[in-house]
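FAQ
Q: What does a multi-component entry look like?
A: The components come first, one per line:
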Amino acid sequence: MEFDRRAMLGAAAAGVFAVPAWAQAPGATARQRTINAMMTDEPAHLNYPLFNTRIMQEICGNINESLLRFDWQFKPHPNLARAFEMSPDGMAYTFHLRPDVRWHDGVPFTARDVAFSCGVMLPQLNPRSRNAFSHVRAIKVIDRYTVRFDMKQPFNAFLLSLMASSAPMMPAHIFEGTNFRTNPYNFKPVGTGPFKFNRWARGQFIHLTRNAHYWRPGQPGMDGIYYRVCPTPEQRLVAMESGAVDFAMADDIDTVVNSRMMANPNVVARNDAFNGTGEITVMEMNHRRWPFSDRRFRAAFMHAIDRDFLVKAINFGLGKVATGPIPSNLPYYDEKALVKYPFDQARARALLDEMGLKPGRGGVRHRFAIMMIPDGGGHWTRGAHYAKQALSEVGLDVELQSTDWPTFSRRSGNWDFDVDCNSYGQYGDPAIGTARFFLSSNIRKGVPQSNIQGYNNPEVDALFHKAAVAVDSAEIQKHYSRLQHVLTRDVAMCWMFERQPMFFYNKRLKDVITGPNGPADGFGSVRLA
Amino acid sequence: MRHFLRMFLSRPIPLAGLVIFAVIVALALLAPLLFARGPFTIVGMPLLPPGAPGLLVGSDVLGRDMAVGLAYGARISLLVGITSTLGAVGIGVLLGAVAGYYGGWLDDLLMRVTEFFQIIPSFVLLMVLVAFLQPSLSSTVIGIALVTWPQVARVVRGEFLSLRSREFVQAARTLGMGDARIIFTQVLPNALPPIIVVGSMMVGSAILTESALSFLGLGDPNLLSWGSMIGGSRSAMWVAWWTTVLPGVAIMVTVLALNFIGDGLNDALNPRRRR
Amino acid sequence: MNRLSYIGARLLKTVLITVAVVLLSFFLVRLAPGDTATVMAGQAGFADEAFMKSLRAEYGLDQPVPVQLWKYLSAVAQGDLGSSFVRRQPVVDVILERLPNTLLLNAFALLVAIAGGVAMGMMAARRPGSVTDASMTVLSMVFYAMPQFWLGMMAMLMFSVWLGWLPPFGLETMGADYTGLARIGDIAVHMVLPGVTLALYFMASYARLTRTAMIEVADQDFVKTARAKGISEGQVARRHILRNALIPLITFAGLQSAILVGGSVLVENVFSWPGVGTLAYEAVTTRDNPLLLGIFIVTAVLVSLFNLVTDIAYSIADPRVELGR
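Then the predicted structure of the entire assembly, as tokens:
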């Protein structure tokens, strides 16, 4: 969906679109068939499973591909696998590989690569893949182009866990038997994708060139991609406005100036490029500590915050109020099952009164701290500042704590916090991205991004398990509906808003975003408009 | 003393500094009386320009009244500037006095330590300290004091080195006065003028350092400081100039006033520079 | 003391100070909470015990601190500063990649500051107490009172956004891939805003030093003699007064060398200048301890060497100065 530009124009500040002399992109004609993208910071290496961040997905998505590709409805389609089938009992998945795919160095892509990637390299390096492939009992190479996954038990999210960013195929002939962390090919990656690695000028750019022997006919549509280092948000805005770069994704452009971007006639704005991630901004509470252990306190917290204002004013309209654990645009979302917490400060006060948290000196009922995530003053920080104000109106006195990444991860992993700001991605299926925050088996001290709240509900554990192993889709939906009810009834987490990070691209290009994985699916389809 | 005051107030620059400084202090102290709402209260839509209804100088990225923020920001700047300088002067005087008075290996050790501080990029050191202490008002103050005391120590040491062999010190010693008493009642009063001058200049630079830390997001998030106002609206600079221009002007005027005062003190206390 | 043995003694002192720097900063950087493994887990958004354990093992963070220290010290003694945790490249390479950018920017800023400051100081000193003098003093104090990062932002707002004269960010034009002279010109244009921003701050100090020194020297006998000989005012100022005012200037420039090498975190940050300052900021916020230690060590060594050079320059500017005092 293209973003409604007119709606935003009203809010747009008076930007002057005359491009000054210093910002004219040089040599425009020679660069026509080259994509210029940007990186907020340079990755350490280009080993996709070793460090799976958004910038890695945007670069390596062009190099390392997955067996399947997903459409806007999250239905699987052939990619490196030309066909695939599930056994009726859900205990085996068979993939038939394309016989015409070659790695960038000319070696054919075969079942051995699949077995190596999914059986060895991905589970060893990437926690998200490790979770998905833990349901697999064995990977059998049937013949050169056929591979079968035998499951320990049915796992209906299995196909979705083969989304590009979770399960990129890695070359066995390069990595097998080596130290994955120090392999020299981490700096000159080899894949099967539409673009291949060419050059890395440290501190400046990474350059990919077209893969002339790409298996998908008619792709890639462009000659190459430059990823240029652009460390500050102001610099990225200028680079995008001047046309020096063609893409700006997610948090590249601060939401404050999004309106200016959207009013720019040379730029196409998309808010669906990261649907596959399904990111929800949340506040997590330490359920080991009182009063956060009390459901009424968590409900009061939700009632006290005007999340509509949070989205409209603080986040400049980019997103949607979150109503529960599953993002509203992803499979299994069930609005009818949800217990809702509308903005109602009187209700919040009543709940706090009921708990015995009466106003004391200066009208303060309780003091606690919100630990902020280090986002350089972005939407999280602004949201926390707003929450502090809103909570003070119901007598909750908040101390904001700013952190850097090491401090944040360490303190949240060690349960050393009252309330924190965070967000999680569902990555298609609740069993992949959402369950980990609520399963009692995932309460693991020292591990950030686990169930750090200490939420423990046997019914929820059981429901997540039943939902993941069910084969019948109606049954799956039944369990997930019940889950959404229980989790929202418990206020198992304070869901703030569903983020819809923007993806901007220069209108000289087209076919940039073709599925919910957005830039993580690579830029093979991109061509001149 | 009267001579000093006449000297100080007769020149226009220190006088101007004093007047401006008095206004800023008044603004900081009276902020809760001048404005009904606190600096964090959201009063409207974000990024409203100066002159919008009820907003003298506009609103910031969160829709807060910039005027209130500017007034409350003065409190943080002054508080950090003065307390961290007092801390640095305290440490510097103590260590500088001991080193200068006793000399020998103590002096050597102190000189090596001050050299260490000259050699390490002090702002990076400060960032490490603040990361270790966790960003808050007290860690800003402690951090600034810890990286700036060597400047004071060097000055104090120099003064003590030259004063310790003077006759009045010898006399005190023959009278049987203890070292501590000599240091604090005999030598220190004579070494005060340069300490005052250094201290007055340090308040201004501490305010600048605080604003830099807050700008990078290493300040106390519960307090609105001029530096954090600039840092928080960094991206908005391109669409709303007032969010970054005004807090910067506030910092500049404050530091300028302090430096004017320091300059006047220097002239009044250091007869050699009087011209 | 003769010059050679003096240099020897200073070099020894440099080594000792460097060892102290290594030891102190080794423990200092470990005081901060969290480590690189927690950073990566946080940024990746997914983590489990195996992930954290393998990262810590790779970086040697699972070993006892004395073992880590011993390993680090023996490596440094052999000239090996280790590998950056985050960038997975040798620390020396990472720093050497950035150091030229910082040196270039700061050398340029230093030259502008000295040239501008001396000019302002001379103008002010010509007639002490005049309106020119007062306005020069106030002007230099205004520059001295501005937060550098803010001055940079304002310069950017005015010259890049409103007037469109100068590029606001980076070392060179993105994607231009210039070579040869065109590249040098491109970098020079990019250097103007950050360079002048840095320079204006120091200019105040140089102006003040020049003014004071010139007024003091102007009263001394040899200057009076020169004037009596009928040498023109301009020549007196250049040949006699300025030469004597040089000494405090050199001293000050020497003191500034830590900034020269370490880079200005803030100005580099505001202008996205790929220098040592931005690198140090990254190293602190990602707990990239080997990188941060490496920056401290390289800075310490270079600053000590710069100080040595200024000391020698000192003795050349004024033969009365004895080395080693």
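Q: Is there any commentary attached?
A: Sometimes. For this entry: Chain C touches chain B through 53 residues (CB under 8 Å).
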